[in-house]
Amino acid sequence: PPHIKEEQEELRISQDEEQLQGLEEADITKFPFTLVPVKSEDDEEKPQFSQLHQRQTEEIKTENPFSCSVCQKTFTLKGSLKAHMRIHTGEKPFSCSVCKKAFLASGHLKKHMRIHTGEKPFICSVCKKAFRVNDSLKRHMRTHTGEKPFSCSVCKTAFRESGNLQKHMTIHTGERPFICPVCKCDFRERGSLKVHMRIHTGEKPFSCSCGKRFGWKTSLERHMITHTGEKPFSCSVCQKTFTAKGSLKAHMRIHTGEKPFTFSCSECGKIFGWKTSLKRHMITHTGEKPFSCSVCQKTFTVKGSLKAHMRIHTGERPFSCSVCKKAFTVSGHLEKHMRIHTGEKPFSCSVCNKAFTVKDSLKRHMRYHTGEKPFSYAPRHNQDDIWN
């Protein structure tokens, strides 16, 4: 579960810094001090306790007779050396009674047990948030104080946590230590590699209430707009709105005339700014309809049209009005419907300026001005008239 992972991460960070702290403290507490009674001020025959304590403390600092044979670190007590050797031997004598995880020191086991007991003894004095280990509280306090003790030696950017500084330094060094075992793509951060792996594993951890799942949170957020009908990206020239920033960027080329890549039709010479536009256009020459409905065998030129068509058979209506809850099979129908609520009439007659909510209504209206009558009546002839 996520909360267990978070808790274990808190413990992991603190363990590195405190690995032998408890053992070193034990050196002092286990040292065999001899308590000497303090007599009157004029009694100078026997040493005072404070003097003896000072002398013995100095001996502790200067005498470390027990040395590690691996890394040469020295200790005052044999027990401390024994505990230290576990780092090299890998021995973990302190085991959790719940999950059986083992630890080098008893203090680490004590901290670990808080995962199971839920104990959080370290509390923030500002917001009262509680933590399992003291180091987590210390890091948290920086969010209140604004302290950023870790500074980049290159650009002087400061960070609250050393881990964030380490990630930042890869920008300057160019180091990308996290490599995908499948396609060998490399990444600066472990989290980026984890997200990338979903391409290979097919994992889709983000799900919509309609049942559709996504590999990335941003993909889910974009998908949610199809249900709400929201179009937060607006063209500064014609005010047309879009659901995605990329769509707005592509639209702006209509106004700027920019064509970063030009794709030319080999049949008619027409030029397109996007390769996909050329592909769709080519179907007008070939008449190809490669996407076929498995139910009624109707064919389509593009996959999206087939997908929308399938909703006729499934009854799915994923686009819902936020006002009256009416649902639609395609987003375009929802967009038209919303004009009922907003009163928007974007299609206006160039002759009399009458406005309409849908383009088809404007087309029908224009026939009054043009006199066009596209639908002709052909009367049925009598059989005798045909043969005469």
From TrEMBL:
GO annotations of cellular component type: chromosome; nucleus
Subcellular localization(s) per the UniProt record: Nucleus
Cited InterPro entries: Znf_C2H2_sf, Znf_C2H2_type
PANTHER family, A to Z: ZINC FINGER PROTEIN 142, ZINC FINGER PROTEIN 322A
Keyword terms: DNA-binding, Metal-binding, Nucleus, Repeat, Transcription, Transcription regulation, Zinc, Zinc-finger
SMART domains, per the entry: ZnF_C2H2 (SM00355)
Family in the record: Belongs to the krueppel C2H2-type zinc-finger protein family.
MF term (GO), any: DNA-binding transcription factor activity, RNA polymerase II-specific
Keyword Transcription regulation: yes
UniProt name for this protein: C2H2-type domain-containing protein
Species for this entry: Sander lucioperca
UniProt record, GO biological process: positive regulation of DNA-templated transcription
Pfam family, one: zf-C2H2
Domain C2H2-type positions: 66-93, 94-121, 122-149, 150-177, 178-205, 206-232, 233-260, 263-290, 291-318, 319-346, 347-374
